[in-house]
Request: fold
Amino acid sequence: MIEQADADGIAVVRLAHGKVNALDVELLREITAVFTGLAASAHPAVVLTGTGRSFSAGVDLWRVIDGGAGYVEAFLPALSDALLAVLTLEKPVVAAVNGHAIAGGAVLACAADHRVMADSGGRIGVTELLVGVPFPPAALEIVRWSLGASRARSAVLSGRTFGPAEAVTAGFADQVVAGSDLLTAALAAAHQLAAIPADTFHLTKRQLLLPLHDRLDQDRPAYDEQARALWTRAVADGRLRRFMESLR
Reply:
């Protein structure tokens, strides 16, 4: 599900789960375990990337549809845990967005400190509302923190996806490079961030994330449960199935 390698001292974490790295409970738990382990590793920084034409196409909605309420109850906490494990790693994390990063896949990229996107035709965006499901609080706050309130509001409510050039303006990417240069550029960004003294980087990252943590402490007790209820309803009333069948 996840391949790990060392590239000039930088940890490279590569999603390798099916054709499009769809997010299911198993992959999310693996992401959490890998990033928890990286906290104690000697690597000064991490590059997170995907395989093939996808960084991650987002949630495996067929698993949600087939699994029903019981799967939703396990899936949403696993999603929040994985996103927060990437976000709160006290080391620089660079996302090398090799292809499509849609919905939860875009949020996963947003959890990184720096995002490099390949110019090879992939699209990125948060499409949850078009599907008919809400963002869990952790996912929504990561998008708000990463894009800024105004751009996050536009991206969330429109559900638009963006090509590489537009992704920088929309806030989803910090730079765009040729696909053949993606890993090189991501490693260069990781080395640049890793050159900051680790204790200084740790403290600064904690301070930058304080508003996000404050909002989550306030919102999650109520909104996690409301999000779970609406995802469960979306399975029961057939809207997820209708959306998936409309893509065929």
